[in-house]
Structure formats: structure tokens, C-alpha cells
Amino acid sequence: MNDDTAFSSHEPGLNSPSAPRANDVKRLRRVHRVKTWPEFFEPALLGYKPFEVRLNDRGYEVGDVLVREEFDPVNGTHSGRRIAGVVVYVLKGGQFGIEPGYVVMTLDPCPLPD
Questions:
Q1: What is the pTM of this model?
Q2: Does some domain include residue 31?
Q3: What is the pLDDT of residues 6-46, one digit of tens each?
């Protein structure tokens, strides 16, 4: 499975202001698996960090699912811990001090996809 596994859904309103919530996972479009360093993973796991700042090299959109996988960059290993969140808001870079090409995404926790 690659990083951008597509869900089969063409339901209207997926990008509407009434963004999908965690219980809508079955009808979402894409799953992005991303490495997350331990110092950022732990606060996300505990619910203190419901956002993610990323280079927008994948075209992140409302309705996508981010699977954050804990990764230690020092020794290059995954811990095996993972958490998932539905993207409910995307703030694109080039404004408010966010670098162009980056996004800040608000995530709503959801079950890990299959």
C-alpha cells in the first residue's frame, strides 16, 4: 500500500464548511501515512496537538486521513505507535506567517484505517 491510498467516494459536500468528523471515516478519500518525530507524536497522542504542519507535497484536503507514525530520526526506526486523524481544516501557506508550500491542518481523531 502506498502513502496515498484512495477511498472510493464521490459524496457531495466533502469540502464543505461542515467538514467530516471522526465517525465519517468510511467515506473519506485519501489516507496519508506520515513520519512523526517522538517530540511531536506524544503531544498529538495525548490530544494536546490537534494540528499538523506539513509541506503540502501531497495536496492535503479536508476529508483526508492522516496516519501519524512515530519515527525516531536519530536511529531511523519506527516505534510501531500510530494515530489517525481526519483533516477538518486546511490553512494554506503564503499567509499569516506560514511559508508558501506548507499547510497547517486541524485533525479530528479517528480510528486507524485498515
A1: 0.74
A2: yes
A3: 333 333 344 444 555 555 545 547 999 999 999 999 999 99
Length of the chain measured in residues: 114
Classify residue 75 as left (phi > 0), alpha (psi -120 to 50) or beta: alpha
Bridge partners of residue 32, in order along the sequence: 4, 66
Give the number of other Cβ atoms within 10 Å of residue 26's Cβ.
Answer: 9
pLDDT digits (tens, 9 = 90+) for 97-110: 999 999 999 999 99
Amino acid at 43: P
Block residue for cell numbers 501557506: 93
In a domain, 15, yes or no: no
| Residue 80 domain flag | yes
